[in-house]
Structures are given as C-alpha cells and as structure tokens.
Amino acid sequence: MLTKLQIVQIEEKDLPDATALLIDLPVGRAADGLDVGRFTSPIATDWGFFHTVELNLPKVVEFAARRLGQSQAQRVAEGANQLRHAMEAVPSRSAGEREPGSARESPGANCRGGRLRGLLLVV
Description:
Layout: H1 2-5, H2 15-24, E1 27-28, E2 34-35, H3 36-40, H4 47-67, H5 70-88, H6 107-111, H7 115-118
Parallel strand pairs: 1-2
C-alpha cells in the first residue's frame, strides 16, 4: 500500500492498485490484511513520506467514488479512514528530534489539530 501512496505526483494510473488493496484486505492489526502498525511505522519518522501519504489517501477515496459502485467505494472510504486514524496516532517528533539541518515539520504538526484531523474521507 505504501508503495503506491508514496508517489509524490500520483496519477490516475497509480490509484487502482491502492483502491483494490482497500477493497480486498481488511485494515487492522491482523497479518492477513493491511496492518496499521506496519503501515504507520515507516512514515512515523519521515515527514515527507508522511505528508505524501496524507495527500494521496484522499485521492484514492475520490478515485473509488468516481469509478466504483457505492458499496465498494464505501469500503475504500472506511479502510482509508482507518488508515487516517492510525496516522493520527503516530507519535510526533519534537523539533529537537529532527535530523540535523532539517527544516521540515514533524508528522504531528499536520495531524494533531492540523489538516489531517479534520479530513473525513467519505463518499
């Protein structure tokens, strides 16, 4: 899933794979689905990766709403919401924990009270 959502300039052709994963696999803590721990672990310490996923997840939901029936589009939206909630729970790094010379914000700057918190992914 992250392989698809990490694309900085995501295009329409990149969205079907992520959409299919959200339709076919349950989101949660199970090994047979999209494990939220494994989803959030790589993005927890990389603001750029976090932000790119943050921007692309709604695009997957929008794609599903345009291309799929209501039932499948709703399943995609529900899975995306679960991933979004998992992202909100990612511990933020403080300014002192940034890599030397990094001027980027921490992931928590965008999710706690920021853009991600108010984003509802619904169809």
